Amino acid sequence: MTATFKDHFSGHADDYRAFRPLYPAALIDLLADAAPAHNLAWDVGCGNGQLSGDLATRFARVVATDASATQIAGAVPRDGVEYRAAPAERSGLPDSCADLIVAAQAAHWFDLPAFYEEAKRVGRPGAALALVSYGVLTAEGDLGPLLRGFHDDALGRWWPPERAHVDAGYRSLPFPVPERPVPALAM
Description:
The chain is α/β, with parallel strands linked by helices. 29% of the residues lie in helices and 18% in strands. It is globular, with a radius of gyration of 16 Å.
C-alpha cells in the first residue's frame, strides 16, 4: 500500500523554485553516461523541474513527475520536457520505456518498495536508476562549523524525520540494484 503523500512544498512552491540550488553539469553527464540510451528519462519527484530541463539536453524526451500539482504548475516549460502530476509509485508511464529513472532530492519522501516496483516496470532492460541527494552543506574554514551548527541546532528540530536520509547522503536508504562508484560532485 502506498504511503500518504506528505506535501511539504505546495504551500511555498514559488520560493522552492526561486531558491533551490541547481545541479552541476557533471551530474547530468554522469546520469546520461549511465543510461543505455538517451530516448527517455523519467525525473521522479521533480518538484518544479530543477533537474528536468538539464536532462533534456541529453535525452530526446524527459517525463518529469511530482505528486504536487502545485509544483508541476510552477515548472518552467522546457523543450523536450513533459511535466505530469503523478506520485512516484504510480507514474502512468508505459512498461519498459525509460532509459534513466532519477529521483533528485526526493526519494526520502517515497514509499520506496512501491517506487522500486514502479521503476522496475517502467525501466527498459539495462536502465539506470539513480537516487541523488544534496547531502549536508559544508564549507571550509570557520564557516563550516557555523553552517553545521545552524543546520543541526537552529533548524534540527524543524526537520521532518525523513530528512535524516538526506543528512546521510541517502546511504541509509535501501537500494535494489548493485551500486556503481560515483565520483565526488560539488554544487
